[in-house]
Amino acid sequence: MAEFVEDEDMKVLKLEFEWLLREHVPKVLTQLGTILQECSKCLRLTSMPSKGATGEIQGEVRPQDYFMLSTPNSDTLKGYVAVEGENISKADLKFKLPKASSSGFRVFIRERLPWKLKQIQDAINYLQLAIEKVEETKANCNFSSGQEVSKLLKTEIASGLLTINNKKSCSNSPTGCGRNNKFLAKGKTRLSLPDKTPVLDMLMSGNQKVFKPGLPDDVVAYFCLNSDRLVLSIYTLTTLPVPPQSSKQPQENDPVGQTFEYNSKWMEITSHFEVDCSIPRLSDSMLLIGAALRLCQQLKDKFAVFSVLPSR
User: Fold this and answer.
1) Which of 83, 167, 199, 289 is the most exposed place for a label (fewest CB within 10 A)?
2) For a pLDDT cut of 70, what percent of the chain falls above it?
């Protein structure tokens, strides 16, 4: 009698598994694709239409957004930036840095030479890889038999969308593990964590050339993202008359006092401050990526209960 009950339970479990494959997984993939497309569109938002290789318009066109940047309770820095897609397309920044220029100075960024926010571009690229895997799986799999489950195990959807530690549950999931690329997780990380770029690398990257007229030789400015915020870091430098006898060890939150050699001169960082502003579409993008990751995890959890089924 116990064996009969067990057989009936397994039969019901198998039917539920097959229903999940035929009905639920395609719906989840469609929903997932919609979320990823919306997130990609959000990151590409621009007021100027750009064209792809075949001439098609890329990105959603809308009125340009301007965001204010200023130091609280001082006139050290005041101005605005316009962020479109992965570019800072415009900026008007007024500085008053006593150690650099007592009278102050003003610089601009123009559309013809924008500041490239590589973090956004990287996030867009990871999203596109995830979108392509979702579409490929939807096109190639009908989820109607156990044999097709085995075939789908070899695909890479979940490898791009999930971080899976349990190998047993992974082997019984219709999304599989693949090469564990974690596209969405990588995209989220690129937006969430600011680039830790040394000042010497900032100078050598060529980004300083986008400011017109150029920044003073003793000032370095650098843009990066920290989640939904655009951060502008400002450093002032002093040229040392002789090479330092010892160099201060780099500190993540305190670069002041560090020395480095640039263009055959030794430089010391004498001050550092940051200003930031919130970019709403980046906040929306983070929420959408989080929703996509949760959707993938929920799908994985639903299939974990079928690990008791043979060859499933």
Assistant:
1) 167
2) 72
